[in-house]
Amino acid sequence: MSQTKCLSQSSVHDFLSARKRSSTLIAIGVMLCIFSPITLLILISLTRLDILTSSINFVTGIGVIVLILLVAAAVALFIAGNHWLKVHENFEYEECNLSEETKEQVLKLSKEYENQHLVLKIIGITFCILSAIPLMTGSLFIGSLSNSRIDDLMTGLSTATIFLVGIGVFFLVKTNIVRDSFNIILQIEDYTAEKKASKKIIEKYATIYWMTISFIYLAYSFISKNWSQSWIIWPLAGITYGILEAILSLKKKKSISE
Fold first, then answer.
1. What DSSP line would sit under 73-131, residue for residue?
2. Close Cβ partners of 151 (under 8 Å, ≥ 6 residues apart)
3. How confident is the model at residue 6 (pLDDT cuts 50, 70, 90)?
4. What average pLDDT does the segment 141-145 reach?
5. Bridge partners for 145 per DSSP
6. Do 166 and 104 contact (CB within 8 A), yes or no?
7. Which residue has the higher pLDDT, 67 or 199?
């Protein structure tokens, strides 16, 4: 059974401030991970369309170097963000008690942030929706270009899609981390006492899961040299993670009810 913990105003303030700092670092890190294959895909597309005269191996090498640099920068940001997430991280998994005064203060801050959260959420979702436009634009050239040329063009246009998705995800990740910090303290929505218990179990496997996905992505991409399409691993991995998280949560809920 999770331990009951009374939170002081200072600890709540430290927790909320730390989560706000981490939100920007982690959001930028996620965005850089999404952006990482853009240079590679652009160079491959321009080379295959004969706009660049360099060899495909040369541009692939340059693109992979940029990809690794961006991923390295993202990892550095994740480490920095995780440092701030460690501040009172037990609040995320343990049942907490608030004094009436502290609860009112947190509720006030949460309500004040609600409008900003809504705006950032709208911006993020809008960018994600707009990300379909570049690929839809490419379909306009079907019939006027050969199949191979269409594929090369779509590879280039997919970078615009990835860019727009990256921007959208940045806003969504940033605002959700901040909003979740209020929910954690207030123990509402995805952070009720029951759900906190299941999250502790899920977090044990999250790191292993994403490290495995990263290994699969890099191994497949280097072996197959299919960088223009291997990025699809990431959205599929995200969907799979969501499904696994839901299954584990249901199992935990069932075990508690029994």
1. HHHHHHHHHHHHHTTTGGGGTS-EE--HHHHHHHHHHHHHHHHHHHHHHHHHHHHHHHT
2. none
3. low
4. 69
5. 142
6. no
7. 67
- Residue 96, strand partner residues: 5
Q: How many residues in total does the chain contain? A: 258
Per-residue confidence band for 222, with pLDDT thresholds at 50, 70 and 90: confident
Structure tokens at 196: 């906190």
What are the structure tokens assigned to 235, written together? 């959205």
**Neighbour count for residue 256 (Cβ, 10 Å):** 10
pTM: 0.76
Closest CA to 218 of 206, 234, 205: 234
Q: Which residues of 19-41 are buried (b: 16+ CB within 10 A; e: fewer)?
A: bebbbbbbbbbbbbbbbbbbbbb
Structural domain boundaries of the chain? 7-189, 192-258
